[in-house]
Amino acid sequence: MVKHTESTKDLFLKKALLLFAQNGYEAVSVAQIAYDVGCTAPALYKHYSSKQELFDAILDESMKGYQASMERLKLDFENHPEEKEKFINMTEADQIAHAKEMVLSSLHNEWANAFRKLMTVEQFNMSNLAEMYNQRYVFQQYQHYETIFKVLIDAGIYKGTDPYMMAVSFVSPMTVLIGVVGRDSTKEEWALEILERHIKEFNRQYRIK
Fold first, then answer.
1. Which of 79, 83, 177, 203 has the highest CB neighbour count under 10 A?
2. CB–CB of 171/137 below 8 Å?
C-alpha cells in the first residue's frame, strides 16, 4: 500500500490521465485507477469524490500548465523589443532547430502527450474538450505565428500579404506530424526529416533574406 500524501494525490491524476488517454474516459473505472496507484478505491475517494471530479482536476491541472507555457511564449514585442529582434535574426537553421525542439517537447512530455491523446479521442464525446482542442492545438497556434509573420513581413524578411494564412501553412504540417508520431513513435525520425523539408520549402516560397 502507498502512503497517502499530497504526492499520492498527484499520482492519482497522472495515472488517471494515462488510463483515460489509453482506454477512453468511459472505459476506465475508479477501481482500475486505484489499482494502478497501488491502493483501493475507497482510498482514492478520500482525495476525489468521483471519477468526474478526478477528470475535472486533470483538466484544471492541464489548463494551469498550458496557461503558464503560453505566458512564456507571449509575444509582447512592444514591451520586449529584444524578442522581436530574436525572430528577425533567426536563420533558417535556427527555425528548423526551434521547430524540432517544439515538436519533440510536445511528444516527449508525458503529461502533454497523454492529454493530447485524451482530447483527440474525447473531443467527439465532450463538447468542452472539442472547443479546448480547437483553441489549444489550432487557433492559438495560428494566432501565435500570425503575429510572428507580421513582424517578419514588416522587417522585409518575408514576402506576403496574409500573415494568418502563412501561419496556417506553416503550422498545420507540424500538427499533423505530431499526430502521426503520437500514434506511432517509430515515425519520429521520419517526421523530423519532413519537418525540416517543410520549413525549407516554406522559406523558398516566402523568405526574401
1. 177
2. no
